[in-house]
Design goal:
By secondary structure, the protein is α/β, with parallel strands linked by helices. Helices cover 43% and strands 10% of the residues. It has 13 helices and eight strands. The protein has an eight-stranded parallel β-sheet. It is globular. Bound molecules: phosphoenolpyruvate and magnesium ion (MG). Magnesium ion (MG) binds next to α8. It comes from Pseudonocardia hydrocarbonoxydans. This is Phosphoenolpyruvate-protein phosphotransferase.
Amino acid sequence: DGAAVAAEWDGVGRTSDGHVVPLLANVGDTPGAEKAAGLRAQGVGLFRTELTFLSAAEEPPVATQQAVYAGVLSAFSGPPAGGGGTTRPVTARTLDAGADKPLPFLTLDGEPNPALGVRGLRVARVPGPGSDVLDRQLATLAAAAAETGAELKVMAPMVATAEEARWFVQRCRAHGIRSAGVMIEVPAAVLTAHEVLAEVDFASVGTNDLAQYLFAADRQSGPVAALNDPWQPALLRLLRLLRLLGEASAATGTPVGVCGEAAADPTLAPVLVGLGMATLSMGAGALAGVGASLAAATLEDCRERATAACAAPDPMAARRAVAELAAKQS
Ligand code: PEP
Ligand code: MG
């Protein structure tokens, strides 16, 4: 049961043979961050900064933003209770306005297809107030990090090209942000991983949107939900390709993690590790189960499961192949 699983996890993500995979939390606000810290998240892999401002008619004042960001950052400043000497980085995503998360002060009205429109980083790249909003957010995030002493990383949503990645990293640097990355959630960013990863300090795969754009299937539509199943071999093969392109590039050392819902599935998590994902970020309630699942497999087990899942013809076969392999391996 949940309590037994939680008791088995010691708060450090790793396979049974010691391959370290930090297990991070997806959070949206200070109470969520405090809860995640209590559940021993090793940091925040995705702080969805837009969630606090979904009903804001105007851009929130800088002081309001800084209080929100500092609240989340302070839950992870310093090492975890019990020591260990590790820092717990907080990865803030800049405002992902648009599509399923419209922000009244940023989102364009009347777009015929908002999921394919001006959302995420694109808001800062078209004429309008978005560019200044991004700069104020970056400055405020940097100020909140200085205020709390927490380790801040910042990443951009909806990046499709290496040029967008470069532009974003330059903006971060202008505000003294040392660790700047991008979400990989548009298939084009996978196919150009060689160039994209060379621009950034880290990347994080958003499997929710990556599946939506890979299958041309609205993530909010029930009738097409089966296409957005993270066990779809096409999605897993795209992650494998991401890994292969990353390894073949000069940016071999750029860590790539996962922060979409796929990372919260304890059966799929070892597959993602086998595909080379360096960190997993999830709803905090999933941490203990994923931690226990990783602790029960070697890195080689994970790699074999990844190969089996990618080779399967459909999600059901992928689940079955991985379950059979796991039973044999244990
Ligand atoms: C994703 O797209 O997978 C993701 C993690 O971000 P969001 O769900 O907020 O779009
Ligand atoms: Mg997304």
